[in-house]
Amino acid sequence: MYVDYDFYAGEYGGMMDPDSFGRQERTAEAYVRYFLFSNAGKMDQDPIRAVQMAVCAVSDVLDEHYSAKAARAAQGGSGAAVKSENNDGYSVSYAVEQADGETEETYLRKKAYDAAYLYLLSTGLLNRKVGCCHDHKCGRDHL
User: Fold this and answer.
1) Residue 119's closest CA among 44, 38, 54?
2) Inter-CA distances, 38 with 58, 96, 118, Å
């Protein structure tokens, strides 16, 4: 666990209640680990704060997504976002961020990545470049 509720509310300034944060933090951490790929083990104390902030940001994305979905379901729908509706000539379309044909999981992964990207870009942890295990001998560019 990278982040506790005290960090989320105090340092990050998040607005979720503790129960909601507890539900979203584990999934947010899993997203951030996925984004970091094999670099998750390379973190020292400097980028750990960036990772903590990324987990908080992804937690907010997840909470917003699932809260909106629950609100739509509470109104009698399936919970899915409605893009268009037609009833005897009366037509309504709702603005949605999700592209046509894009699954909810893909959309949510993109939103989570965008939220984490802001914090993780400058750390180098998002880099998936494969280097030589002999960098100290041969240098990065001379494999």
Assistant:
1) 54
2) 19, 33, 19
CA–CA distance, 35 with 33 (Å, rounded to integer): 5
Instruction: Flag whether 85 is in a domain.
Output: yes
Q: What angle do CA 127, 131, 135 make, to 5 degrees?
A: 125
pLDDT, one tens digit per residue, over 70-122 is 887 888 765 555 556 666 667 655 545 667 678 888 989 999 999 888 778 77
d(CA 93, CA 60): 26
pLDDT in tens, 56-69: 989 999 999 989 88
Distance CA 140, CA 132 (A): 6
Q: Is the pLDDT of residue 54 over 80?
A: yes
Query: Residue 143 falls within a domain, yes or no?
Result: no
- Structural domain boundaries enclosing 15: 5-138
- Tell me how many domains the chain contains: 1
